[in-house]
Design brief:
The protein is mostly helical. The chain contains 19 helices and no strands. The termini are far apart. The structure holds iron/sulfur cluster (2 copies).
C-alpha cells in the first residue's frame, strides 16, 4: 500500500511538472516566432558540423582554459549523472528499487561509481564558480548588466546543482550504511551516519531520493525562465548560426533590387519583396534567429569584455543588447506603445558600435549581437533619417563624392601638388 501511494505521488509530480514544462516551451516558441522569416536551411552538413564542434565540443571556450575545463566538467557531468535519473523514473513508475542493477549486472556498480565520482567533480566545479562570482568577483560576472534577476539566477542555478549532487551522494551513502553495499564514493561516506538505526537510514535514503527527484523536476521547470536554458538552446542556435564570413553584413534584398534597377533601367524589382518596414524598431521586425540568439544567451559577458566600445567607456554592451532583446520578446504586446528601440536599447548604444564583430567572434555559442545592432540602425537611417550628424554628412559625401570626405573626386590628387 505504501509503495502504491508513493507511486501515485510520483506519477502526479511527473504529470504536473511535464504540463508546466510544456507550457513554458510553448511560450518560448511563441516568443521566437514573433521574428521575421530567415532561411537557415542551407548547407546542412556544415551546420551539423558547426553544432558538433561549438555546442558539443565547446570549441570556442578555449580562450579561458580553466573556466573552459570546469564548464565542460559541470556540463558533461550533469548530463551524464542524469542518466541515473532514468533509473529513478523507472523505479518511481514501477515501484522497484535500483531496477538497472538487474539489467547491467556487474557493470552496474561501475556505472554508479562513475556517476558518483562525476557528482563530486560537478560539486567542486560549482563551488569554484560560486567563489569566482562572490569572492574573487570576476569583473564580467559582476558587471552592471547583471543587476537584479540575472545575478540571482546564476546563484540559484549553482546552489541547486550543489544540492542535487549532494542529494545523490546522501541517497547512495545512506543506503550503503544501511545495507553494507555502496559504490565508489558512497562507501567512503558511511561514517556520516554512525549511530543511526536502520529505520532512520531508510528515511534518510527515501528523503534524498525524493529531494533529488523533485529537485530535478523543479530545475527542469525553472530552466526555460533562466539563462541556463542555453544547455538546450545552444544546439539549435549553433546549428542555425551564420555560415557566411562573420564580418559579412547581410544586404537588404529590396535595396539590392533598387541599386540593380538604377544600374540597369530594364531591371524590374519584384513588388512582393518590399518590406513593411526597413530595419528593426521592435522585436517583431527582427529575424527569428535573432530572437533564438537572445533566448540562448548565457550572459557570460565574453562579448562585452572584448567590445572596444565598452572597453573605452561607452554605454554599449553587446551582452545587454541580447538581454534587452530577450526581455522585450518575453513581454511583447503590439499595443503597449513600447518598442525595443528607445525603451530597451538606446540610440547612444547603437551608434557606439564600431561594427568590428569582436562580440560575435568571442561568443562561445554562435550569437551575433551585431546583426541586431545593424538592423536597428537600418531602421533609424531608412525610416527616420535619424542618423547622427557625423554619419549623415559622411553618407552625403559618399553619395556626392564617392568617398566619406568632403572633397570632389576631381580634387582627390590635389594634395600631391604640394
Ligand atoms: S561589433 Fe559593436 S558591439 Fe560588437 S564588439 Fe564590435 S563594437 Fe562592440
Ligand atoms: S552574446 Fe554570447 S558572449 Fe555575449 S553574453 Fe551572450 S553568450 Fe556570452
Amino acid at each position: 500500500m505504501a509503495v502504491s501511494m508513493e507511486n501515485g505521488v510520483f506519477v502526479l509530480a511527473l504529470l504536473v511538472a511535464s504540463a508546466f514544462f510544456y507550457r513554458s516551451i510553448a511560450r518560448l516558441r511563441q516568443a521566437i516566432a514573433l521574428g521575421q522569416p530567415a532561411d537557415r536551411s542551407d548547407r546542412p552538413k556544415e551546420r551539423w558540423a558547426t553544432m558538433a564542434r561549438v555546442a558539443m565540443g565547446q570549441s570556442k571556450m578555449g580562450a579561458r582554459p580553466v573556466a573552459a575545463f570546469l564548464h565542460l566538467l559541470v556540463y558533461v557531468g550533469f548530463v551524464l549523472i542524469n542518466i541515473e535519473m532514468l533509473e529513478i523514473l523507472a523505479d518511481g513508475l514501477l515501484g522497484t528499487h535500483r531496477l538497472f542493477s538487474g539489467v547491467l549486472g556487474p557493470l552496474y556498480p561501475v556505472a554508479i561509481g562513475f556517476f558518483e565520482m562525476l557528482s563530486v567533480l560537478v560539486l567542486l566545479g560549482c563551488v569554484f564558480f560560486l567563489l569566482r562570482r562572490s569572492v574573487w568577483k570576476v569583473q564580467r560576472l559582476n558587471h552592471p548588466d547583471l543587476e537584479g534577476f540575472p545575478r540571482k539566477d546564476a546563484y540559484i542555478i549553482l546552489y541547486t546543482e550543489v544540492c542535487l549532487m549532494a542529494a545523490l551522494l546522501v541517497m547512495n551513502s545512506s543506503e550503503a550504511a544501511a545495507t553494507g553495499h555502496g559504490f565508489f564514493v558512497s562507501n567512503h561516506l558511511t561514517f556520516l551516519y554512525t549511530g543511526l538505526d536502520i529505520h532512520t537510514l531508510h528515511w534518510v535514503e527515501r528523503g534524498a531520493w525524493w529531494f533529488h527527484l523533485i529537485g530535478i523536476l523543479l530545475f527542469l521547470n525553472y530552466l526555460p525562465f533562466s539563462k541556463h536554458f542555453h544547455i538546450v538552446l545552444a544546439f539549435p542556435n549553433t546549428y542555425f548560426s551564420k555560415l557566411t564570413p562573420k564580418g559579412q553584413l547581410d544586404s537588404m534584398p529590396s535595396v539590392t533590387h533598387e541599386v540593380k534597377a538604377m544600374l540597369d533601367p530594364s531591371y524590374v524589382p519584384p513588388v512582393t519583396d518590399i518590406p513593411a518596414r526597413f530595419g528593426a524598431k521592435d522585436v517583431n521586425d527582427l529575424r527569428w534567429i535573432n530572437l533564438l540568439n537572445a533566448f540562448t544567451c548565457t550572459e557570460c559577458g565574453r562579448c562585452t569584455s572584448e567590445c572596444p566600445a565598452n572597453q573605452t567607456g561607452k554605454k554599449l554592451s553587446p551582452r545587454r543588447i541580447m538581454m534587452a532583446t530577450r526581455d522585450r520578446a518575453e513581454t511583447y504586446k503590439p499595443e503597449d506603445g513600447l518598442s525595443l528601440l528607445d525603451h530597451g536599447i538606446s540610440r547612444e548604444e547603437l551608434w557606439a558600435c564600431t561594427s568590428c564583430n569582436a562580440c560575435t567572434e568571442a561568443c562561445p555559442i554562435g550569437i551575433d549581437p551585431l546583426d541586431i545592432i545593424i538592423q536597428m540602425r537600418q531602421y533609424i537611417v531608412m525610416e527616420e533619417s535619424g542618423a547622427p550628424l557625423g554619419v549623415q554628412s559622411m553618407m552625403t559625401n559618399i553619395e556626392n563624392n564617392g568617398a566619406p570626405w568632403p572633397f570632389a573626386q576631381a580634387d582627390r590628387g590635389s594634395w600631391t601638388s604640394e
